[in-house]
Amino acid sequence: MKPSRSCDKCYRIKARCDYVQGSSECERCARLGHACKVERAVLHPGRPRTAVKSQSTVSPKQKHASPATLANRSQARLQSEGHLLPVWGAFGQNELPLLEFALHPDQIGNWLYGPTFTNTMRTDLTTHIWGNSEELKDAFLAFASVFLVSKHADSAEALSRQHVQRGSRAVQRLANLSTVTIDSARTALTLALLLSTYNDLVTGAPAFALSRSALLRAMPYRKQLILPTTEGTNPHIICILFMEATECLVIGQVPLFRHQPLQGNTLVDKYYGISHELLPFLYDICVLYSSIKAGSISWLSRTLEFERITKLVDPWSPELAIEARDGVIKNSDEKHHFLLQAKVFKSAVQLLLLHTQRNPEAIALARARAVQVHSEFLDLMQHAVDRPNYALFPYFVACLELVDPDDELASIVLDTMNKSSAGLAPASCQSMLQCLKHIWKRRRQRPDLAWFECVDEAVAMGP
């Protein structure tokens, strides 16, 4: 019998549900040990959102309103909600509608995978904007400008010259600033996460420039994870490496394979795609790449750093990581999924290390390791049929070593990327494919070329 309604748990994360009226529980809730209930109110037809009463109702006419009209309505709404959005003196009255546009529920829905956190994210963003440094306030204004331009083809007329100029200055200051607090660094990472998600869902490659600035802004404050010399780190590499890892850094705690934050009276499942023990090595490899590319590291230092990181990565065991998560991983199925996930990320980190040694032996080892990563990735895909696997980044790394790919293989790569991200990131998948195509082309011309030596060119090409 076809279910009349999904249970509340499956409905919240848009998962397939086999709940039937009168039955005890659906298969997913039984497997995860959730309380299977249907207590939510029946909503009007349309895109579902949580906590509907706290959101503004948007009519069809409002959805298609011009940017100027939207700005005027936003300004009126700001004036009526002044107690919720306190005015910071450095923002003029003509700039507040732009911020309200970025904080509008429809926009926040584009920054998150699903509407579950729309209302809490609006509150959190408002707190960040008015509670941190001037540079981050300017950065958010720059982000809002980019979002408005990307959403409306004719929106340039709605943005004053002052908005555009200030947005450009904000990005430059964000990238160059050297003294901030831990709180503002955490906010920069939050902005980077939001921008990366918006990049996935809407814009694609053009968001890289802003995202890399926010990530660079926060990097000096992760000293326990990175080398002391971060100033010369290639910002393009940062964006690609941390596409999957940013959320782990934003939450400011040890990320878990399965995390259940409390939303009101409900525990919400959240899954993370990388083991926190591997994050320091991604940072170190990123800095090593940049040093090699800039020619600022000797051959001996390069070899010693390669050996140091290798000695730390090779002994790392996913089984030991599971022991550190006692009580978090609930059953054998989740344990198996975590092992597959951690295994493919470890192999990807080892492959990234081999990319720093472009001699014939290392090139051969890298190609063999890429085959292993691809095989482990397919195993994870086969097992993760009813849950996100978050292994897009390891697959991207493995594809760097493909030999003589043709158009048919490129099509398969794009299709696999979309399946890995559950179809949620089509713009980023297309951007990553274009990046791969450029690197493949350069590798045919020069087989010993390291991919990070030409990543600037590839990212600059856009989708």
TrEMBL record:
<dbReference type="GO" id="GO:0003677">
    <property type="term" value="F:DNA binding"/>
</dbReference>
<keyword id="KW-0804">Transcription</keyword>
<feature type="domain" description="Zn(2)-C6 fungal-type">
    <location>
        <begin position="6"/>
        <end position="38"/>
    </location>
</feature>
<dbReference type="InterPro" id="IPR036864">
    <property type="entry name" value="Zn2-C6_fun-type_DNA-bd_sf"/>
</dbReference>
<dbReference type="InterPro" id="IPR001138">
    <property type="entry name" value="Zn2Cys6_DnaBD"/>
</dbReference>
<dbReference type="GO" id="GO:0005634">
    <property type="term" value="C:nucleus"/>
</dbReference>
<protein>
    <recommendedName>
        <fullName>Zn(2)-C6 fungal-type domain-containing protein</fullName>
    </recommendedName>
</protein>
<dbReference type="InterPro" id="IPR021858">
    <property type="entry name" value="Fun_TF"/>
</dbReference>
<keyword id="KW-0805">Transcription regulation</keyword>
<feature type="region of interest" description="Disordered">
    <location>
        <begin position="47"/>
        <end position="69"/>
    </location>
</feature>
<keyword id="KW-0539">Nucleus</keyword>
<dbReference type="GO" id="GO:0000981">
    <property type="term" value="F:DNA-binding transcription factor activity, RNA polymerase II-specific"/>
</dbReference>
<dbReference type="GO" id="GO:0008270">
    <property type="term" value="F:zinc ion binding"/>
</dbReference>
<keyword id="KW-0238">DNA-binding</keyword>
<dbReference type="Pfam" id="PF11951">
    <property type="entry name" value="Fungal_trans_2"/>
</dbReference>
